[in-house]
């Protein structure tokens, strides 16, 4: 009898435990479901905030008439920002406006403004910011994207190649930042986006003027972020890897120009190691909205930059091997020709 009671008690306890476990699992599932819905709703809210974060903002894009600069302008325009494009060529600026209008990135004529100017000239940068401020009342976001590049061995480079690269790639960003910073400081808000390069992290052979200027820009931008972060101004350093922008047509080549152009174009157009400009621009837009300090675009660029930091000696030996085995030798030719001119001859 006792054994029977114990057996029945054990069975009842087992069923009670099972029901309790079932109830616990049900409650757990309900709780997890509620958490999942809350997380999804929060992410949707954040996505909506990101999508509208630039609506009505005044965005100045230095070097915004073509290539990556134009794609960045497009992303901000689609986000509802008022655009100010700055470049040297008025025809290219007007063409850029036409493209943006056609894609719906400029909803009406009052939402865009162009300024003809050379970023290597401090007075032109000051004029661009003043013109944007006069038109729209303020500047919320400054994107420094203007850049030039020359490709050749160091022996085939002139001093002027280095000076020109520094004037456009580094001092252009410096001048524009100096011009816009006072109004941002007075408001306690604003964003400065410096388009540097993985060439500002990795010393790429045959591109030394560009590399030197981008190393300078990365250092300036990172230091500026540290100084302005707690004053309400976000500074984002962008280091893209290889991009498919079509910019090789405007790049200058010296030395064995045809061979220099061939390897450069191959790297810029290779789908497995490069990213198209529009995809890069979307990442830059998202980083600006998020107020990120720095982004490196493309996994290959990210890994390369980390490798240099972790193993600098090996990285430099590898670069030296690539230079020796894969790149054209110097031939004493310091005359430059553009990629477009080389294409026309082929």
Automatic annotation (TrEMBL):
Residues 57-246 form the Ketoreductase domain. GO terms for cellular component: membrane. This is Ketoreductase domain-containing protein. The keyword Oxidoreductase applies. It comes from the Bacteria. PANTHER family: DEHYDROGENASE/REDUCTASE SDR FAMILY MEMBER 7B, DEHYDROGENASE_REDUCTASE SDR FAMILY MEMBER 7B. SUPFAM superfamilies: NAD(P)-binding Rossmann-fold domains. Keywords: Oxidoreductase. Belongs to the short-chain dehydrogenases/reductases (SDR) family. The keyword Oxidoreductase applies. The lineage of its organism: Bacteria, Pseudomonadati, Acidobacteriota, Terriglobia, Terriglobales. GO terms for molecular function: oxidoreductase activity.
């Amino acid at each position: 009898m006792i054994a029977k009671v114990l057996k029945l008690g054990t069975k009842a306890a087992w069923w009670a435990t099972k029901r309790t476990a079932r109830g616990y699992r049900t409650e757990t599932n309900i709780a997890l479901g509620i958490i999942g819905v809350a997380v999804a709703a929060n992410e949707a809210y954040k996505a909506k905030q990101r999508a509208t974060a630039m609506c009505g903002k005044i965005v100045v894009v230095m070097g915004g008439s073509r290539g990556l600069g134009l794609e960045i302008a497009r992303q901000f325009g689609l986000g509802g920002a008022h655009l100010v494009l700055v470049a040297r060529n008025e025809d290219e600026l007007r063409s850029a406006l036409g493209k943006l209008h056609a894609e719906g990135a400029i909803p009406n004529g009052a939402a865009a403004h162009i300024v003809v100017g050379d970023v290597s000239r401090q007075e032109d940068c000051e004029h661009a910011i003043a013109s944007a401020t006069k038109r729209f009342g303020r500047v919320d976001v400054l994107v420094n994207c203007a850049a030039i590049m020359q490709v050749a061995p160091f022996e085939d480079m002139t001093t002027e190649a280095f000076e020109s690269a520094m004037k456009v790639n580094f001092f252009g960003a410096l001048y524009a930042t100096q011009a816009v910073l006072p109004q941002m400081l007075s408001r306690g808000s604003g964003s400065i986006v410096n388009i540097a390069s993985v060439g500002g992290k990795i010393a790429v052979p045959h591109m030394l003027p560009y590399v030197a200027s981008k190393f300078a820009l990365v250092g300036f931008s990172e230091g500026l972020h540290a100084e302005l972060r707690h004053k309400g101004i976000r500074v984002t350093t962008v280091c893209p890897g290889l991009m498919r922008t079509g910019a090789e047509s405007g790049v200058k080549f010296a030395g064995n120009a045809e061979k220099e152009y061939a390897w450069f174009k191959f790297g810029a157009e290779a789908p497995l190691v490069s990213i198209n400009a529009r995809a890069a621009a979307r990442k830059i837009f998202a980083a600006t909205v998020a107020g990120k300090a720095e982004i490196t675009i493309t996994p290959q660029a990210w890994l390369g930059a980390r490798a240099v930091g972790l193993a600098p000696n090996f990285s430099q030996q590898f670069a030296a091997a690539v230079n020796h085995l894969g790149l054209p030798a110097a031939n004493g030719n310091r005359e430059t020709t553009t990629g477009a001119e080389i294409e026309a001859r082929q």
